[in-house]
Specification:
single chain, 760 residues, mainly beta, Immunoglobulin-like, 41% strand, elongated
Length: 760
C-alpha cells in the first residue's frame, strides 16, 4: 500500500512538471469589451541568438505570424517588450480615427493603413509619430469643404513626426498644410511629401512661428505649394528651421516648384529666427519679387553648410526671382547669411529692374559672409547664376556688407554689369581676404566686379579675381563715379581689353599691395577715363604688370605720376607704356634691358626677371587660391553586414538606382538573409536595386534565424497589461489537469488490482 501511495505521488509530480512545459493561453483583464490583441510568445529554435537576459523569448503579433514572418531577434525581456508594444503602437484607417488617437489615445507610434480624407484640424499637444504601413506611403487629401491646416502642433509638449505619408492640399485655403507654433516641434522625414496647397496665409507647405518653435526636415519633399510669403516654408518670430539629409523644397518636375510673392522656397523673418541648412536641396521655386529660393529678413539668420544646394544645373532646377536674389535674398539691419560650404547654382533674376543678384542679393544693412569651400555658380553647363541686369553672382546694395574669406564666385553671367559681383549705393562694402572670382561674364562693364555710383567700397587684402570677361569696360574690375577700390593684397588678372577700368570723377583706385596684371600684349592693366591724376595710385607694395600698356589715361594731357614708395610698374620687354619701371640696380628692370614674366612659386605670385647674368624671382606676396572642382553630384551606398562594411558602391548619380552594382546577399550560418534596410534589425525603409538614390545611404542587412519556432499564444486586451495579483481565468487549465489526474489514478488502481490477482 505504501508503494502504491508513493507511485501516485510520483506520478502526480510528473504530471505537474509536464504541465509546466505545455503551452497555455492567458487572458488579460481589460477595461472594456474591445477585441483582444493576440501576441505570440516565441522561443527561438536551435541556432538563434540567446537573449541578453538569458533565454527570454521574443514576441510577434498574430497578424505577423499569419503572414509567415519569423520571430525577430530578442533584444529585451518579454515583460518590458509586451508593455512597450501595447503602450506605443496603434493602427487607424480613417481621419476620424487618427484624430481620436492623437487627441485621446496613448500611442506614440500611429500607423495608417490606407488613404484618407482630412475633414478637420488635428491638434497635436503630445509626442506622436504618424507613418504609413509597409504598403504606403498613403495620401491624406484635404476635403473640399475643409479650409484649415491638416495638423496644428501647439504648445511645448506638441511634437509631431511624419514619415512615409503624403499631404495633399488640393483647394485654396487661408492655411498651411502644417502649422507649428508656441514652442512646438515638427519633424518631416523621408518618404513624406507636402504638396499642392494654395494658401492665402503664410507658408504654403509649413508655417513655423514663435520663440522655441522648431521644424526639422531630414528628408521628404515640399512641392508645388503657393503663399504670399514662403511658398514652401515660412519661419517667423524666433522660430527655427533645420534642413538636412535628402530633404527637398521644390523640384524640377511640372508644377513641383513652390511659388510666392516673396520667398518662393523658404521665408525666414524676425529677430532670433534661424534657418540652418546642412544638406538637402531647394530647387525650381519662384518669387514674384524677392528670393526665389530663400528670403531672410529683419534680424533673421541663415547658415548654409555641408552638402546644401540652392538651385541646380538641370532643366527647371534653378530658382527664379523677378527682382532680387534668384537664389537667396537677405535684407535688414542685423540680418545675416553665413555660407561656409554648399552651392548656389543655376538661379536667375528674370526682369530688368535696377536690382539683380542671380545667385545672392544682400541689401539694406544686412551682412553676408562667405568662407570655406562655399560656391556661388560653377563652370559646368547650367551651373552659373544669371541676372538680366546687375550682379550675375552677387548683388550688394543699400549699405549692406559682404565679407569673403574663402569660397568661389564663378561662371556667373550678367546681361548688364557685374558678372561676378555688383556693388552700389552709399555704405555698401565688399571685404575680400581670400577666395576667388573666376570666369564670370558681363555684357556691360565689370566682368568680375562692378562698383556703381553712390560711394560703394571694395577692399581686397587677398584672394584672386581671374579670367573674367566683359564686353564693356573692366574685364576684371570696373569702378565708376564716387566708388573706390582699395587693393592691399591678392591678384587681379585679365586678357584683352583692360583689367581694371576707372571711370568718371570721384572714382578711385589704390594699389598698395598685391598685383594687377594684364597678360595680353594688346591690353591695358589699368585704364582711366575722365579722372584726375591722383585717383589712380600705385604705392607701398603695390605692383602693376603688363605685356601691353601698364597704366593709360584717356584724358588729354594727363600724365600718370608713377608709383610712390615701393610701388612697382613692370612691363614686358619690347612693349611700351606711359611709364617705364625704375633702374635695374633695384631689380625693377626697364622694358629695354630685361625680360620679365609673371610666374608662381609655391603658390605665391611674382615677377621672374632676367638681365644678363642677373636672374631671379621677385615675390609680390600674392597668394593664388586654386579652385577645386565642384562637389560631385554622385552618391555612395554603403552596405553593412553585422558590424562590418560588406560593400560600397560609389558614383551613383542623383535619382538613379544601384542596379547591377547591387550585391548578392551575405551568408551567415544559422540565418537567412532578408534584405537591406536603412536601420538595423530590419527597421526603417527597405532598399532594392531599383530604389532611387538621392544622397549617401547606409544600408544594414536583416537576418532571420533558421528553424521553426514553437509558440505560445497570449491574448492581451490593449492597452492594459495584467499586473501582479490580477485575476486570470484558470478554468481550462484546471479541467485539463483534473482529466489527466483521473486517468493516472485509474491506471494505478487497475495495476494494483492486477497485482493482487497474481499474488492471490
Amino acid at each position: 500500500m505504501k508503494k502504491t501511495r508513493k507511485s501516485i505521488l510520483a506520478l502526480l509530480l510528473a504530471v505537474m512538471m509536464l504541465f509546466s512545459f505545455m503551452p497555455a493561453t492567458v487572458f488579460a483583464a481589460g477595461v472594456d469589451d474591445s477585441p483582444a490583441l493576440t501576441v505570440t510568445l516565441t522561443e527561438a529554435s536551435e541556432g538563434a541568438p540567446s537573449d541578453v537576459g538569458g533565454s527570454a523569448p521574443d514576441i510577434i503579433t498574430s497578424e505577423q505570424q499569419a503572414g509567415g514572418l519569423a520571430a525577430p531577434i530578442v533584444t529585451a525581456p518579454l515583460s518590458e517588450r509586451i508593455a512597450a508594444d501595447a503602450k506605443v503602437s496603434a493602427q487607424v484607417d480613417n481621419w476620424a480615427g487618427l484624430e481620436n488617437e492623437v487627441k485621446n489615445g496613448s500611442a506614440t507610434d500611429i500607423e495608417i493603413t490606407g488613404p484618407m480624407t482630412a475633414t478637420s484640424i488635428i491638434m497635436v499637444s503630445r509626442s506622436v509619430t504618424i507613418h504609413s504601413d509597409e504598403n504606403g506611403p498613403y495620401t491624406i487629401t484635404r476635403d473640399g469643404a475643409f479650409k484649415g491646416s491638416l495638423f496644428h502642433v501647439d504648445t511645448v509638449n506638441g511634437d509631431l513626426t511624419l514619415q512615409d505619408v503624403v499631404l495633399e492640399g488640393g483647394v485654396t485655403v487661408p492655411a498651411s498644410l502644417v502649422l507649428v507654433e508656441n514652442g512646438g516641434t515638427f519633424e518631416l522625414r523621408s518618404g513624406t511629401t507636402l504638396k499642392n496647397n494654395e494658401s492665402s496665409g503664410n507658408g504654403g507647405g509649413v508655417c513655423v512661428t514663435g520663440n522655441g518653435t522648431i521644424f526639422n526636415m531630414t528628408g521628404g519633399s515640399i512641392l508645388g505649394n503657393q503663399a504670399p510669403l514662403g511658398g514652401g516654408v515660412c519661419v517667423l518670430n524666433g522660430a527655427s528651421f533645420n534642413m538636412s539629409g535628402t530633404a527637398q523644397i521644390g523640384g524640377a518636375g511640372t508644377n513641383e516648384g513652390n511659388t510666392a510673392n516673396e520667398s518662393g522656397g523658404v521665408h525666414v523673418e524676425g529677430n532670433g529666427t534661424t534657418f540652418s541648412m546642412t544638406g538637402g536641396s531647394i530647387l525650381g521655386n519662384r518669387s514674384v519679387n524677392y528670393g526665389g529660393g530663400v528670403c531672410v529678413l529683419n534680424g533673421a539668420s541663415f547658415n548654409m553648410s555641408g552638402t546644401a544646394q540652392i538651385g541646380g544645373a538641370g532643366t527647371n532646377e534653378g530658382n527664379t526671382a523677378n527682382a532680387r536674389g534668384g537664389g537667396v535674398y537677405v535684407e535688414g539691419n542685423g540680418t545675416t547669411f553665413d555660407m561656409t560650404d554648399g552651392s548656389i547654382i543655376g538661379n536667375e533674376v528674370s526682369l530688368p529692374y535696377n536690382d539683380g543678384g542671380g545667385g545672392v542679393c544682400v541689401s539694406t544693412d544686412a551682412f553676408f559672409k562667405m568662407s570655406g569651400t562655399a560656391r556661388i555658380g560653377g563652370t559646368g553647363t547650367g551651373e552659373g547664376n544669371w541676372s538680366v541686369n546687375y550682379g550675375g553672382g552677387v548683388r550688394v546694395l543699400n549699405g549692406a556688407t559682404f565679407g569673403m574669406t574663402g569660397g568661389s564666385i564663378l561662371g556667373n553671367t550678367a546681361s548688364g554689369n557685374g558678372g561676378g559681383v555688383c556693388l552700389s549705393n552709399g555704405g555698401t562694402t565688399f571685404n575680400m581676404s581670400d577666395g576667388s572670382l573666376l570666369d564670370n561674364t558681363a555684357s556691360g562693364n565689370g566682368g568680375g566686379v562692378y562698383l556703381s555710383d553712390g560711394g560703394a567700397i571694395f577692399s581686397m587684402t587677398g584672394g584672386s579675381i581671374l579670367g573674367n570677361t566683359a564686353s564693356g569696360n573692366g574685364r576684371g574690375v570696373s569702378v565708376i563715379r564716387d566708388s573706390a577700390f582699395n587693393m592691399q593684397g591678392g591678384l587681379i588678372t585679365a586678357q584683352g581689353g583692360d583689367t581694371v577700368n576707372v571711370l568718371s570723377g570721384g572714382a578711385a583706385l589704390t594699389v598698395s599691395g598685391g598685383a594687377v596684371m594684364q597678360t595680353d600684349a594688346n591690353g591695358t592693366a589699368i585704364y582711366g577715363r575722365e579722372i584726375s591724376a591722383d585717383q589712380v595710385k600705385i604705392a607701398d607694395k603695390g605692383t602693376v604688370y603688363s605685356r601691353g600698356k601698364a597704366v593709360a589715361y584717356e584724358a588729354i594731357g594727363l600724365t600718370f605720376p608713377g608709383p610712390t614708395g615701393d610701388g612697382l610698374v613692370i612691363l614686358q620687354k619690347g612693349d611700351s607704356a606711359p611709364y617705364e619701371a625704375g633702374a635695374d640696380t633695384d631689380l625693377r628692370p626697364t622694358p629695354t634691358d630685361a625680360m620679365v614674366q609673371w610666374d608662381l612659386e609655391g603658390g605665391i605670385g611674382g615677377i621672374r626677371y632676367e638681365k644678363g647674368d642677373n636672374k631671379g624671382f621677385l615675390p609680390l606676396d600674392v597668394k593664388v587660391q586654386s579652385v577645386s572642382p565642384l562637389p560631385s553630384a554622385t552618391y555612395t551606398v554603403t552596405f553593412i553586414s553585422g558590424s562590418a562594411v560588406f560593400k560600397e558602391v560609389p558614383g551613383i548619380k542623383q535619382g538613379s538606382a544601384v542596379g547591377s552594382g547591387w550585391p548578392d546577399g551575405p551568408v551567415k550560418s544559422g540565418y537567412t538573409f532578408d534584405g537591406w534596410f536603412t536601420e538595423q534589425n530590419g527597421a526603417g525603409t527597405q532598399y532594392t536595386n531599383t530604389t532611387p538614390i538621392n544622397g549617401d545611404v547606409t544600408l544594414y542587412a536583416k537576418w532571420t534565424p533558421d528553424g521553426v519556432p514553437h509558440t505560445v499564444n497570449i491574448a492581451i486586451n490593449t492597452p492594459i497589461i495584467p499586473q501582479t495579483g490580477d485575476t486570470a481565468n484558470p478554468l481550462s487549465c484546471l479541467l485539463l489537469m483534473l482529466a489527466a489526474l483521473a486517468g493516472c489514478v485509474s491506471l494505478l488502481l487497475y495495476r494494483n488490482c492486477c497485482c493482487k490477482k497474481r499474488h492471490g
